[in-house]
């Protein structure tokens, strides 16, 4: 069966990673969560005091980029790969609201994007990959055979993210999460380098009223159609 590249873009908290994991498992493809890569760099910046509530030393972060080694290591118990930063498993640390508050600012830095896009393109050179993020179909894999763009209302996405953080035991309010979602949307769509936009040939999916099973079934049908016609 022909192998293709599936590029999934969209706003924060639209379930891109969940869908991408489902597809990769079903197709036996490699799954890459590019958001985790940017989160890991943001976490590195936080740990090294390069970024905070009222400051961002971009030069210090750019100068430190050669010291940042990112790897995905497959966890057989979980059934998916986890993010490692300089040989440390940071999967849990990068999913906090604190990292969410800074990740879009870090992702604005052109030097950061350049470093990560190069790595992402290398990961997908042999196809048979499902990758999700903000610029996969427009920058990383503009020739991807299937491009999906996911969206939902800010309120719906904030509620999903709030529920997820509550289940993890994080002490956050819905208002705080909604504020983060709205701010990230603005930064992601207004940055100069690779802003979040829908590719001309992408299939847009508003999943405000879709459950995971309905969404997966619809996208899997799209994948199978593309595989048959390519």
TrEMBL record:
Domain of life where this protein originates: Bacteria
EC number(s) per entry: 2.7.4.25
Molecular function GO labels: ATP binding; CMP kinase activity; dCMP kinase activity
Span of domain Cytidylate kinase: 6-224
Subcellular location: Cytoplasm
HAMAP family referenced in this protein's UniProt entry, alphabetically: Cytidyl_kinase_type1
Source species of the chain: Flavobacterium araucananum
Protein name per its UniProtKB record: Cytidylate kinase
Binding positions for ATP per the UniProt entry: 10-18
